[in-house]
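In the design runs reported in the main text, the only information available to the sequence generator was the tokenized backbone. The following block is the verbatim input for one such run; it is reproduced so that readers can re-run the procedure and compare outputs position by position.
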């Protein structure tokens, strides 16, 4: 195999790079994402960004994007309002047409957290494990499932979406999907900031709240502990259902220290039966590049499947 052009398509920024089959990452280039301007504007921006990266060694283009993705067609089947009119967008056809990519080059599209999961399983904290649950905690809470056969997205492409699991402690809290009681309404970064502001009357960033918790601020400690405990409880449910070899936790909130990680691990282990209570809960290793590695891996996996 040769190289792949990988794209991490976010709501505010799109990053791209050439990734080799051995995991070497080239220079990362970025552009602002015109998410509010509609699919055509977004696809135009992505095409302009990656066109200079395409050469004869590039075997395909991989994209990790927000939204629920039908990977078989590269179409967005569900999305939040971050991207205007994103549902129904066919990224594969849109990029092929704009870039003139022939059928000999793969174009693969995955949900952004699924791409993170592929990256961490390939080169990050999950390497060497036959199965893995990926959990990403930042602006939202997402997840991805890696099984021995590869990425598993389920019958409706929703597998691993841990953020929408009903969770104790989230009762009465409204999730971004509009429903009450989901994990994301308790554990995501904006949820932590909102609950701290409600209880303290002070608006702070998540990082500042964690710092205050580390300094002994009782309200900050309670809010951070509640978020971590809810997440740990939800992870325990996923582990019991899937029995993965390990759990990898990434995202901005996961960069918090022991004030967050300790109650997360304690809550998870408290709910697990003895057989799986020692499962590894690992910090993600690839940081902001995980999605690029995973998008490239989707291309390499597809080429392998089509050529073996």
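Verbatim output:
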């Amino acid at each position: 195999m040769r190289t792949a052009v990988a794209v991490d398509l976010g709501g505010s920024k799109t990053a791209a790079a050439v990734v080799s089959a051995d995991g070497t990452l080239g220079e990362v280039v970025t552009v602002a994402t015109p998410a509010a301007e509609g699919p055509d504007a977004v696809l135009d921006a992505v095409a302009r960004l990656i066109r200079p990266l395409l050469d004869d060694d590039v075997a395909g283009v991989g994209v990790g994007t927000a939204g629920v993705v039908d990977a078989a067609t590269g179409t967005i089947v569900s999305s939040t309002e971050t991207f205007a009119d994103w549902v129904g967008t066919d990224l594969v056809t849109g990029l092929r047409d704009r870039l003139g990519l022939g059928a000999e080059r793969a174009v693969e599209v995955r949900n952004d957290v699924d791409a993170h999961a592929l990256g961490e399983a390939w080169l990050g904290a999950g390497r060497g494990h036959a199965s893995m649950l990926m959990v990403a905690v930042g602006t939202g809470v997402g997840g991805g499932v890696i099984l021995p056969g590869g990425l598993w997205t389920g019958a409706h492409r929703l597998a691993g979406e841990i953020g929408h699991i009903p969770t104790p402690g989230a009762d009465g809290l409204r999730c971004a999907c509009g429903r009450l009681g989901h994990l994301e309404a308790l554990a995501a970064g904006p949820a932590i900031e909102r609950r701290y502001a409600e209880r303290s009357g002070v608006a702070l960033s998540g990082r500042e709240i964690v710092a205050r918790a580390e300094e002994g601020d009782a309200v900050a400690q309670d809010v951070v502990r509640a978020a971590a405990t809810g997440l740990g409880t939800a992870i325990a449910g996923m582990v019991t259902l899937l029995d993965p070899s390990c759990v990898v936790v990434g995202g901005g909130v996961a960069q918090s220290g022991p004030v967050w990680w300790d109650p997360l691990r304690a809550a998870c282990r408290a709910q697990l039966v003895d057989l799986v209570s020692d499962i590894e809960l690992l910090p993600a290793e690839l940081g902001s590049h995980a999605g690029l590695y995973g998008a490239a891996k989707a291309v390499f996996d597809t080429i392998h499947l089509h050529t073996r």
